Amino acid sequence: MASMALSIGVFAVVVMLFVAGFAFWQYYTVSSENSDLRKTLNATQVDNTQLRSQVNSLQQQVTSLQSKVNELEAAGGSEKLNISSATAMSLDRGGWEVNLTGLNSGSANATINQILVNGGPTNESWLACAGDGCTVANATSLVVLPGSSFTVLFHVEAPPSSFGQTVDVRVATTAGSYRVEVVLPGGNVQSESISVYVANATATTSPATSWALAIAGRNTASSNISFNKIEVNGVTVPTTVNVSVNGNTAGPFVNASVSAGNGFTIALNLTATGFGNLTFTTGQTINLTLVTGRGSYHMQVLLPASAQYENLQVSTSYAVASGSGNWAVIVGGYNAGTSPATVQQVLVNGQVAGSLGGAMVMSSMVDADMVSYPGTLIPAGSTFNYIISVFGVSAGQSIQVKIVTAQGTYPVAVPTS
How many domains in the chain? Predict the structure, then answer.
């Protein structure tokens, strides 16, 4: 019995030691896991603290940037293009010519850098004008000053567009995008269509009490057009107002004709006293309407307050022999003034270039683009070049060339050798 009791006691001690060892192992394991959890929790808390710090830093940067944006907007203002007219005309060559006009009513310059049709860029270069500046072709950007009007013309192909379709047009600037819908007229190609790419006014006195208005464009139809009259704010311009078409002031404005595909320039003078029941003042926007035998074409012009001027500077003049007594005369330069110059005619040795036996203007270019003559419009800052064939002048004689504009005459003597 004593030995059995001893065995039982030993067994009990062993069991107690086992239980104690298991309990210690459990405690050590749980303590290790708790330690690992505490480390993970501390690391997470550190990460959260760093993340909150980064978020606070980014919020401070955003606040600072927004403050700078607000300061820039307050100092420089913002653009705001208002598209007042969006029309399309069918063309004999296919497709349509879309004409957009409007005004920058904002307080900052607007730079138009792209024209999108149904989300895609136009396939051809576009024509663009703003205020007194005009890009006749290959326009890639256009700066419209605050308060200035603008005109953009571009071609829409057929296909992919079709008759009767409404296309989505967006005028994209460096600061935003302006959307307008244009309906493409259907079926029959119009027998008459013109595109106006310049319509502006230049103050001729200071303070401004009179203005010289210039309208330039082209006949995009396949037949001639005739201008019957011009209206200002709905009132027909009377014959007492000085009006010329392509530099011709000899006859009345009525029935002035422009051949198919040719450009045209219309010039007229307005005074503050006006005509009919109309008077004019600085800062006023007037409505001009060209009335032809088949339609009317509308545009708006702002009458500026300050006097502007043209100033043609001839920088190139030479003659190249093209036969006995015959010469190719090249005269070129740029308009250093602040307003467009309208060339009414070129005189060679006192005769109008184009008259029999004198000389013939073979080409006229503005900013490397072929333009019409007479009636060449040279915007401020633009270059010009004339190539003139002259007949019956002996070598050694000087050829006297005069460029006659609506505001002045620019003579140049071209030597021959």
Answer: 4
Query: Cis ω on the peptide bond leading into residue 411 (within 30° of 0)?
Result: no
| Residue 20 resides in a domain | yes
**Which of 122, 118, 120 shows the shortest CA–CA distance to 140?**
122
pLDDT tens-digit map of 379-403: 888 889 998 888 888 888 889 899 9
- What are the residues whose beta carbons fall under 8 Å from the beta carbon of 222, sequence distance 6 or more? 92, 260, 261
- Kindly state whether residue 203 falls inside one of the protein's structural domains: no
Task: Give percent above pLDDT 90 in the chain.
Answer: 3
Q: Are 144 and 107 in contact (CB under 8 A)?
A: no
CA dist., res. 249 & res. 64, Å (int): 62
Are 297 and 325 in a shared domain?
Answer: no
**How many Å apart are CA 107 and CA 116, to the nearest integer?**
25
Shared domain check, 232 and 136: no
Of the two residues 142 and 358, the one the predictor is more confident about is 142
Question: What angle is formed at CA 209 by the lines to CA 207 and CA 214, rounded to 5 degrees?
Answer: 110
Cα–Cα dist 393/361, whole Å? 16
Amino acid at 186: G
The CA distance from 182 to 196, in Å, is: 18
Q: Which amino acid is at 174?
A: T
Q: What does the alpha-carbon distance between residue 154 and residue 117 come to, in Å, rounded to a whole number? A: 10
Q: Is the dihedral of CA 368, 371, 376, 380 positive or negative?
A: negative
Q: Rounded to an integer, what distance in angstroms lies between the CA atom of residue 239 and that of residue 253?
A: 8
339 and 286 housed in the same domain: no
Burial class (CB in 10 A: 0-12, 13-18, 19+), 296: exposed
Q: Is residue 197 part of a domain?
A: no
Instruction: Tell me which residue has tokens 């420089």.
Output: 76
pLDDT tens sequence across 66-107: 555 455 444 557 888 888 878 887 765 567 778 888 888 888
Distance CA 83, CA 164 (A): 21
Predicted confidence at residue 331, as pLDDT, reads: 92
* Contact (CB, 8 A) for 107 and 146: yes
135: which strand partners?
128
Note down the domain range covering 65: 1-76
For residue 328, what are its two tokens? 């190719």
Q: Is the torsion defined by CA of 366, 368, 374, 375 positive or negative?
A: negative
Burial of 212 (0-12, 13-18, 19+ CB in 10 A): buried
pTM: 0.38
**Does residue 363 form part of some domain?**
yes
